[in-house]
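[step 3/7] inverse_fold.run input=structure_tokens len=224
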């Protein structure tokens, strides 16, 4: 179709590139789109999935003139009300939510893999002028879904990046303690380094150093 316009009037993108590779038991993938959200903007999402189940996601958006002053950013959906750390307002730098679906009647077809005993920890490295938050999103089947987001205003011609760190963990693990063991270092055009010290009671402790580059370069180092 010449014009790929969704029913909600959001501009769908055209896939221009995709990559996927494995190193040992860790995986990497990226997808790139042009004409996404506005006809003159582009977006690239890169992801690292470690064998432990940690997910590192880098979003890079390049807004055109038509996107100038629009507000954008990554959104992650969870089925239960999250709590946030260090602040209850827009400067909260991490969130943690139970994966137990509510209400009870929704669990019959959603809790297939023991999600009810798991939480999801989410942390962002966001650009200057960002705002983080939680938005309640009830669905027509009456699930209590929530969106965890980071957002800021776009400037035409200026690339903007977010890094998201998503860590599933057992419900009895202290999210505050976990937040102190997740360190994100933004190295600008050199990419990002994420250090994770993992001490879950039900899993072997690990000390990871994860490098996410800007141009499809990546690595996972396991320190002793």
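[step 3/7] decode complete -> sequence:
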């Amino acid at each position: 179709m010449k014009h790929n316009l969704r029913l909600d009037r959001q501009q769908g993108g055209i896939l221009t590139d995709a990559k996927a590779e494995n190193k040992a038991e860790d995986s990497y993938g990226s997808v790139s789109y042009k004409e996404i959200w506005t006809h003159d903007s582009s977006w690239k999402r890169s992801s690292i999935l470690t064998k432990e189940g940690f997910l590192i996601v880098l979003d890079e958006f390049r807004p055109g003139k038509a996107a100038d002053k629009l507000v954008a950013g990554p959104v992650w959906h969870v089925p239960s009300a999250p709590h946030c750390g260090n602040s209850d307002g827009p400067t909260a730098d991490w969130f943690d939510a139970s994966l137990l679906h509510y209400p009870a009647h929704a669990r019959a077809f959603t809790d297939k893999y023991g999600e009810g005993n798991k939480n999801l920890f989410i942390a962002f490295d966001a650009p200057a002028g960002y705002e983080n938050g939680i938005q309640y999103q009830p669905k027509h089947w009456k699930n209590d879904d929530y969106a965890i987001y980071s957002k800021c205003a776009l400037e035409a011609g200026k690339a903007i990046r977010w890094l998201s760190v998503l860590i599933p963990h057992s419900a009895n693990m202290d999210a505050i303690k976990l937040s102190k063991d997740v360190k994100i270092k933004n190295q600008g055009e050199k990419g990002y380094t994420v250090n994770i010290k993992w001490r879950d009671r039900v899993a072997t402790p690990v000390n990871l150093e994860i490098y996410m580059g800007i141009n499809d370069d990546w690595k996972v180092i396991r320190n002793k």
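[step 4/7] annotate
The chain is about 5% helix and 50% strand.
Confidence is low (pLDDT under 50) at residues 1-8.
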